[in-house]
């Protein structure tokens, strides 16, 4: 396992220790969350804790099944105790860019549903300003060219995310526009402007949502509130 993978494993394991018996847990997406789900499966086996998760992607649901983490859904459960997820960038105010794995829409739903949002990252994701990572924005396939045209007016050159020569289709049947703003001075303002464009389903800006960030670096794991 390389060093970055070890950091992901360490923060995933630390995050799993925040989950208590009886909790309903939102499960984010991505390679760091893989280790969270793995660690939760271990705790269920070894300590017998009883929890239920709601996954934010088909992939995370498959990992939950693989590691023995029971799942529920929003028909059964409207509120979650905690959501744990990765991020692509985290700024000093805990504003986030997410959506590198194209799961941002469901990730935002499980983040909003939770009493606490805990973010797990390695230190390479900590930035002074958001935007070096191209902001993922989920858009409707209908008139996507027009939606991208409107996004462009906000100061970036969006690129439609592709997979195998075709537009990537999210778990929700939509497309992703990756928007390189480079330096986002006011994430809340940009989020409002993007959300005002018809055709934008959801943005990868998670504003005032994260309560706690767990950061892995070569010295170990740091928890910031
Ligand atoms: C997926 C996400 C992920 O949380 C984000 O991309 C981080 O992933 P990783 O842990 O693999 O670096 O937002 O949509």
From TrEMBL:
Active-site residues, as the UniProt record annotates them: 107 (proton acceptor)
InterPro entries xref list: NagB/RpiA_transferase-like, Ribose5P_isomerase_typA_subgr, Ribose5P_isomerase_type_A
EC number: 5.3.1.6
Catalysed reaction, written as an equation: aldehydo-D-ribose 5-phosphate = D-ribulose 5-phosphate
UniProt keyword annotations, A-Z: Isomerase
Pfam families: Rib_5-P_isom_A
Pathway as given in its UniProt record: Carbohydrate degradation; pentose phosphate pathway; D-ribose 5-phosphate from D-ribulose 5-phosphate (non-oxidative stage): step 1/1
Residues that bind substrate: 29-32, 85-88, 98-101, 125
Parts of the chain that traverse the membrane: none
GO-annotated molecular function: ribose-5-phosphate isomerase activity
EC class (word): isomerase
Self-association state and partner proteins as the record states: Homodimer.
Similarity comment: Belongs to the ribose 5-phosphate isomerase family.
Described function: Catalyzes the reversible conversion of ribose-5-phosphate to ribulose 5-phosphate.
UniProt-listed PANTHER family: RIBOSE-5-PHOSPHATE ISOMERASE (PTHR11934)
HAMAP family assigned to the protein according to its UniProt record, in alphabetical order: Rib_5P_isom_A (MF_00170)
Name assigned to this protein: Ribose-5-phosphate isomerase A
Species assigned in the record: Oceanobacillus locisalsi
Protein's gene: rpiA
């Amino acid at each position: 396992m390389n060093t970055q993978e070890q950091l992901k494993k360490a923060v995933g394991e630390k995050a799993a220790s925040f989950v208590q018996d009886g909790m309903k847990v939102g499960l984010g997406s991505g390679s760091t969350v893989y280790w969270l789900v793995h660690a939760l499966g271990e705790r269920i086996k070894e300590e017998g804790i009883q929890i239920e998760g709601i996954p934010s992607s088909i992939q995370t649901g498959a990992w939950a099944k693989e590691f023995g983490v029971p799942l529920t859904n929003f028909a059964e459960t409207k509120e979650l105790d905690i959501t744990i997820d990765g991020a692509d960038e985290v700024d000093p105010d805990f504003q986030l860019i997410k959506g590198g794995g194209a799961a941002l829409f469901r990730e935002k739903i499980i983040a909003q549903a939770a009493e606490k949002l805990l973010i797990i990252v390695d230190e390479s994701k900590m930035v002074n300003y958001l935007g070096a990572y191209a902001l993922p924005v989920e858009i409707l396939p209908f008139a996507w060219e027009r939606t991208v045209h409107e996004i462009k007016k906000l100061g970036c050159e969006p690129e439609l995310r592709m997979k195998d020569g075709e537009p990537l289709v999210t778990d929700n049947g939509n497309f992703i526009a990756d928007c390189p703003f480079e330096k986002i001075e006011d994430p809340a303002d940009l989020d409002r402007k993007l959300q005002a464009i018809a055709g934008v389903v959801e943005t990868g800006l998670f504003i005032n949502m994260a309560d706690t960030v767990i950061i892995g670096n070569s010295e170990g794991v740091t928890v910031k509130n």
